[in-house]
Each structure stands twice: as C-alpha cells, then as structure tokens.
Design brief:
Length: 574
C-alpha cells in the first residue's frame, strides 16, 4: 500500500451513479489541469535553442510523467543532441546525496547531529565555539566557503586541479569564522566536503562506493556516479558552456573533491531519486523528519535549509523541497512538492538558463500562484526629485552581514545614482531601479534593499580622501596563511593595484575611509573583493580581505631588505 492508498467505505447502491459521476468529473478536471500544465511547460521551453547547449527537463505528478523534453546539443565541437542518457554535472544538487548518506549513519547510531565537528576533525582550528555536524549540513557553521577563498590565489577554482586534500587544507587554514556558529545561514561548500570525508572516516569505505551502494543503486540511478579521476573518459557526458558576448565558451571542472559537488547524472536519474527519497521513506518516518528538519538559529528564527541538503520553503501556501546546482557552466535542479506529488528534475550544460527563474516559472505553472509578490511600486509612482531629498544619501554603504558587499551612491544629472545606474525617486525616501526598491532611513545612515526576497540592510560608512602619504604607507607586500599567497600593492591613478603573479593584477578603487578603516574594492577573477586596511597610528595594523561567503581573510605586511614588494608577490625583475 502506498501513501496515496485509502480504504473505501461501502457505498449505498442508490449513490453509485452519483459516485461514478463525481469520480469521472474529478478525473476530467485533473486531465484538463494536466493538459494546461503541459501546454504551458511546452511554451516555457519553446525558446530553448536546438543548436545551442541545452538540457533535459522532466516533470511528473503522482509518479506519472506529464512532461519530458530534451533540447540543444551536448557538445558544440561535434554537435550531438542532448538525450535522456546524456550525463551532466549535478554540482550542488550533490549535497542532498552527501547529507542523506551521513544521515543514514546517524540513523545507525554511528554519530549524532549535535556532535562537535572537532571530535572527527581535530585539524579544525579551535574558534572558541562548538561547530556541530548539524551546522555543517545546514550552512550555519560560520566556516568560510573555501572555493571562494581560492579566488585570492593565482589559480582559483576552475583554473587548476583541486582534490579532497586540497579542499580540506584550505578549510583547516582559515584563522577565523564568518560569524558565530548558528548565528545565521551563509552557504558554504566547506561543510559538505567535511561531511563526505566524515562518511569515509566512520565507514572505512570510499565515499563514492558508499553512496553508490546505499543510495544510487537502491534508487535505480544506474547511470549516475560520483566523479572519478579528472582524466576519466565519461562516455555520453556533456560539456558545459557559457556566453561571452556573442560567443560560446566552454566551462571547466578541474575537480577531484567530493561532497559539496561531484555527482555525475542524468535528469531521468534525478527524477528517480525524487521518487525514491520521498516515497521509500514515508512522511511519518523519523528519518524523513530528520532529513527535512530545518535549522533553528541562535535567535530562535528558523532558516530554510534542512539537514538533508535541501531548502524547505513554503511559497504562497505550497511546501517546496528544492535545490539547484551550478559548476563549470553546468546547471541542475531538483524540486519536489508534496501537494500534488509533483517532482521536477532538470540538468543542463547551458549556464545562461537560470535555474532560479526556471524553478519559479514551473511553480507558477503547476500551482497558478506567484512566487514573489511584485513590488508595490512601479514607474508610474515616481516623483520629481527635490534637491533636499538627496541630503545624506550619497556615499558608501556596507551590507550588515557581508563585508564584501558595498554599495556606492552618487549624484548625477538625473538625480541619485547607485554606482552608474540612475534611480527613480518615490515618495518617502524610496527609490526604484527596475525590480529593486531602495528605502533610505530618514537621516540616510542606512538603506534597505528589497529585490525578489528578504530585505537586506546596508549601513553608511564614511569615505574621506586618502592622502598620497597614507597611500605610500599602505603600499607594499602582504602575506596570508589563510590562502597561502603573497600579494603586492602599489599606488594607481584610480587608487591601488594589486599584483600577485605575472599578468595577474587587480585594480582597486576607494570605497570607504573612517580613519581607522580604509577600504578598496575590485573584482578578482570576476568575484567582488574588498581590501579593508585596519589602521593604528597611521600604520597598517592588519589587512582583512572580504569575499562573498568568505569575509575577514587576514594578511600581514611583509618586510624584506633584499626583495621588492613585486618580487615577494612572485615577480622576477628583467
């Protein structure tokens, strides 16, 4: 008996006709609804190019497939169409397999979710607070995302081979946390690479084999496996692609690490997984409750990430269990809705198709409800900007929870600019930029952004002019043990220039100066970065570098009598 089987009561004979009519009517309504869903899904995917990188989308209802479409090509060099058997990188969709594998061991009593991670990983620095296994699985540990830390090196993720030993070394190097464990959710791959290693420690079995035997084979995922040696030839595997202007370029996945990513799979296998994980373990099963249990933060709020490596949200009254993945220009998505028993599986080698937008569009098609309430303002609500309205609003504002995120506001001919983008004024210290609402406080000391989700608050930070004399003090060579790299900073017409290796430099522009802290921003390998100099008596006491999901990476100034700063950063004079 499955979860949808119910005992029928014996009906009086005179009601049989009414009953059959009702059943036929219900069946007819559901068929009409399914026809409408299929038609809308067909229209949604109609624009996916046949000669471009593509993917496969599968949608089912109560175990019955109602939509399947494979589109595009798996490889542009020798164009072959994507089929049901084409293999893709699952990227972060892998996390639910890693989490489920570890939860099986919790079920067997081999560990507790509330165990101290240092019990199993004594190499983790003692940060003065306990990091639990539960926090590793729910992105609430405070650990930095080691992949983003590599962007401060000459060869970040995607540019060089990275194995499990490298990932663990980067995790163990970090001198501090992003925040106190349990304080908030900040997505980090570190927890999941540790989780996969922990599976090996507890079982004595290679992680890939344990997952294959315990999850992939029972789920019928016979084409799937966790990534092998980077030179392994995977028959039928697609190549990931991204747009660079009008040209397609191939993404790269030079990884041998596993846990946060690593699953190679098909959309059909991911669909089998959704059927297995949501029906093999019944809703009332303690394992299901543990898997879908979301983390309760230190302040009592419940975040959306669950122990099982999935987001569990309620959207417009509908429960959604979902996770997407993005790596090396591959994208993947799994979503399950208990209401209607809908399962959605998607794999793609086209970076340009957003899984967030696709997931939202499919939700709206399945349930005829909006994912995000539209902003209560539009262009028709804009007003003529009065000069007094600009008072106190220009300058720099830093994200309260992410020091790598600094906004700059300027005045221009059209009024207020967020960097170079003109904002449209609304009543009550509000401004609009397309679908983003900016709400300034009355004094301009803070601004809150609302953009398709929870509001984010930024605090104003002073920006005084940095004198040429102070720039000379700041310039020089700096080394970080956290990422094992030495850099050189020199004066530049726009502020500073960071040198790290031949043909590897970043221009940094000033964004704040409070006297005690001086900040410069840039983009390192395409990732935003803030260089935050902590000053003491007109000298650099410490340099903190902030990246998304990896704040406060410490650098110390390096002094050498025999080498110039550029030589210390890896340069050789010619």
């Amino acid at each position: 008996m499955n979860a949808h089987t119910h005992k029928r009561r014996r009906m009086p004979i005179f009601r049989t006709g009414c009953l059959l009519a009702g059943l036929f009517a219900g069946t007819a309504v559901q068929a009409q609804q399914t026809d409408s869903i299929v038609a809308r899904l067909t229209r949604l995917t109609a624009d996916f190019g046949a000669q471009e990188p593509g993917g496969t989308l599968i949608v089912s209802r109560e175990g019955k497939e109602i939509f399947r479409k494979s589109f595009g090509v798996a490889n542009l060099e020798q164009p072959m169409p994507v089929t049901d058997t084409t293999l893709f990188e699952a990227a972060s969709v892998s996390k639910q397999f890693t989490a489920t594998a570890l939860l099986l061991l919790v079920r067997q009593g081999k560990l507790s979710l509330d165990d101290d991670a240092r019990k199993y990983f004594p190499e983790l620095p003692d940060y003065g607070a306990t990091i639990t296994i539960r926090q590793l699985l729910t992105h609430t540990s405070g650990l930095k995302d080691w992949r983003n830390v590599t962007y401060l090196t000459p060869w970040p993720t995607g540019y060089r081979l990275m194995d499990q030993a490298f990932a663990l070394d980067m995790i163990f190097r970090q001198a501090n946390l992003n925040y106190a464990p349990g304080e908030r959710l900040s997505y980090t791959n570190a927890g999941y690479d540790l989780a996969a290693t922990l599976v090996e420690k507890l079982t004595g079995i290679p992680f890939a084999k344990f997952v294959q035997d315990s999850l992939l084979t029972p789920a019928g995922m016979h084409r799937s496996y966790f990534r092998k040696h980077f030179r392994y030839v995977a028959p039928g595997k697609a190549t990931g692609y991204f747009r660079d202007g009008k040209t397609w370029k191939a993404g790269t996945v030079l990884d041998e690490n596993y846990g946060a990513a690593g699953l190679i799979t098909t959309a059909e296998d991911l669909h089998k997984w959704l059927r297995y994980i949501h029906h093999h373990f019944k809703p009332e099963d303690a394992f299901t409750k543990m898997r879908l249990e979301r983390y309760v933060l230190n302040n009592g709020d419940t975040c959306d990430y669950a122990n099982g490596g999935v987001y569990v949200k309620t959207i417009a009254g509908i429960r959604q269990i979902s996770h997407s993945g993005f790596l090396g220009a591959f994208r993947a998505l799994t979503t399950y809705y208990p209401a209607g028993d809908f399962a959605v599986a998607y794999t793609s080698n086209n970076q340009e198709i957003s899984t967030v937008e696709l997931n939202n569009n499919i939700f709206e098609i399945l349930f005829d409800r909006k994912v995000v309430k539209p902003l209560p303002y539009s262009d028709k609500d804009t007003i003529r900007l009065q000069p007094a309205t600009l008072a106190g609003k220009t300058g720099s504002y830093m994200n309260e929870t992410d020091s790598s995120d600094v906004l700059q506001f300027f005045t221009g001919q059209t009024g207020l600019l967020q960097y170079r983008a003109p904002l449209k004024a609304l009543p009550g210290n509000k401004f609009l930029l397309e679908k983003t609402l900016y709400q300034f406080s009355g004094t301009g000391e803070s601004v809150t952004l609302t953009r398709g989700g929870e509001p984010v608050t930024y605090r104003k930070i002073p920006i005084y002019t940095v004198s040429p004399e102070l720039l000379k003090v700041i310039a020089g060579a700096y080394h970080s043990e956290d990422c094992n790299v030495t850099i050189s900073l020199e004066q530049h017409p726009r502020g500073l220039i960071m040198h790290r290796a031949p043909s590897d430099s970043v221009i940094l522009e000033p964004v704040f100066n409070s006297g005690k802290q001086i900040g410069y921003k840039g983009f390192d390998h395409g990732l935003r970065v803030i260089y935050d100099f902590h000053m003491d008596n007109q000298q650099v006491a410490r340099l903190s570098v902030h990246l998304p999901r990896a704040n406060r990476i410490y650098f110390s100034k390096t002094v050498s009598k025999n080498q110039s700063p550029r030589q210390l950063a890896g340069f050789r004079q010619r």
